[in-house]
Amino acid sequence: MKINHYLLALLLLASGVVLGQTGAAKKTAANSTKPDPGSYDGTWWNRAPVRLIQTNLRETDALMNTDAYVQSMVDASATVVMLNVGGIVANYPTTLDYHFKNQFMKGGDLVGDLVTKLHAKGIKVIGRFDFSKINETYAQKKPEWLYVGTNGKHVHFNGQVHTCPNGGYQQEYGFEILKEAITKYPLDGIFFNMIGYTTTDYGGTYHGICQCDNCKKRFQTETGMTLPVKADMNDPVFRRYNTFKKTTADELFYKIGDYVKKLNPNLIVNTYADAGVDMIRDESSSWLTDEYEWNYSGTDHVKRVLGSYRDKTPSNVFIYFIAIPFRHTATSPNIGRVWLLGNMLNGAPLDFNVIGTLVNQDDRVFIPILNDLYGFHKKNETFFTNLKPVSHVGLIKGTEKEYRGMIKLLSEEHIMYDIIEPLTIGSKSAPRPLQDYDAVILGDLPNMSDQLTAQLDEYVQKGGKLLVTGFSSTNDETGKPLKTIRLKSLGVSPEYDLFPRTNSTYLQVSASDKKTLGADGFKDLDLIMLYSDFMKCKPSGSSQTYMKLVPAVRFGPPEKSYFTDNDITDSPGLISNSYGKGKTVFIPWRLGTHYEFKGNHGHRALFTAALQTVLQTPSSIKTNASPLIEMTHMSNRNDAFEWIGMINHSGQIGASLREPIPIQNTTIRFKPAKPVKQLKLARSDNNLKFTQSNGWVECVVPQVDDFEMLVCLYQ
């Protein structure tokens, strides 16, 4: 037996196969030396292991036991706490005339007490401010600060009145509040809530475009136009107003950011904007709608920031309450877990929000899960430090439903991808140039500047592979319809005819189409549903066309539900083209929107055919994993390790979000940056057997419960 094992080992070595660790069920050694992850840029917040908890304190929380509050943060392994400082209510003894002091504070200093005690435990503090509203007492004295609806009235809600971004409160007086708080307390950061042009109240009532004198005057001065009263993208004045909103809001964000940094250069700025901030805020939250929860919300929000900015970090918060009108009960703990895992396993900060404190929640079901996930992150924070994604596909963010459908497709097919904000392409802050990606997906982005179209054409010309869907490049950057396809690399004439969305419309997949698209995915599939506006394009040059439009055929009664060859047009549903050294695939309809809508196998087959068969985009991970396992691949910038994250999305039936079902025996094959000495499963705390051959590592993950993290340590 011994000689046989010896001969087997020689044979394996001769063939280039290296055996990994044999103890698949052995626990990882507790005292094993941890690798040195290094630091990304020396900051505590960027590409660093942050565990943030936001407590939206109510006025009555001024009466809390602050020691219990601080201990709850320690128990939850928080590294950063965000709490209310000022704006709507001052939780400290303010001396300003127009800053409403918390009436429950009774002469104390809630902010001062909490900052001192949290800092004593090594926990940083971000101060929360909200300048979107002001107390009615002060609003009566300063009407020029207020938002005015299209009905000519101010907006009142629970004793607060909406303010306007162009009014004196947000433009001037808010800076006095910031100065008082920042000079009084050693805060670590500043957060602003409900920024920009708020047009709805907490009850969801829409009050229209602000008609205050400040808005009217500024819009007229900057544009020469009269302020619109109706939101209509077909109106050139409203399109100009949209640009006005962005430029004026960004100007205010930069102004606030500069002011804060002058008062204290070490403060970070966190809010719901990309301009003038360090941490870009977003929310994974539930709403009172009939739509199911967006499972990939965490992944969506953090990938967008990490794929677009090297000098900013995401701050995507799981909002605990089930909806704004029901702030006292929590959303499903299982979707909450998935959203937090979307943050964590993409290398982003953990972020959680409650109304009140962790101590006084009426619905505490999620708190043990919170402590578990934050505790796991703390235990393994070395592996969440100084990370970068190992992604070979870039997804440029387009229209919402198309974009979501693409995220679903990429995730279910286990294709490693980044999300890119269009405005950041080619900028100094972009983490990677487009040329770094094997392929780029442009999913229905109608509004494009000439610069962006030129950048994408250049990407293809230099050897890139570009998959384009929908009405990309048919408008200018403001949304003005140009009614031409401006991307030159697509192999079609600029002019097109619009075929509007119509029932009983299809794309026929012929036998010759299948030779290019791949016989496997279309073996038993000759028609694909089309329920989208469609561009009837004219191929140009040497481009190749596939699938044919079958428009509006009969669908009732059953006896009449058929079509003939005469119903089939020559309009292609997919065009491929060689351009310079690269290649494009153009699908002139909204493929991602279809998949978001119905999740149909035909649309999925077409997506994989376009990306992997026609464009020949290689896969960096090969796996038999269930489509319900979302995978991520991260590596350390200091070349100390890499890991593959796995999120179990099972357990959902319609709106019911139950516990995930354990998934067994997932084979994973990947190509690490360096030869591997050890694979370990961080969640189950086990070492794992593996083989290495020709630079590829292969292993079998025995079980994925809620999530798993396959850590790869190098030789």
TrEMBL record:
Gene3D superfamilies assigned to the protein according to its UniProt record, in alphabetical order = 3.40.50.880, Glycosidases
Q: Which UniProt keywords apply?
A: Signal
Highest taxon above the source species: Bacteria
Q: Which CDD domains match?
A: A4_beta-galactosidase_middle_domain (cd03143)
InterPro entries this protein is in? Answer: Class_I_gatase-like, GH, GHL6
Q: Would the keyword Signal turn up in this protein's UniProt record?
A: yes
Span of the signal peptide = 1-20
Q: Which SUPFAM superfamilies match?
A: (Trans)glycosidases, Class I glutamine amidotransferase-like
What's the name of the protein? Beta-galactosidase trimerisation domain-containing protein
Instruction: Please spell out the taxonomic lineage of the organism that makes this protein.
Output: Bacteria, Pseudomonadati, Bacteroidota, Cytophagia, Cytophagales
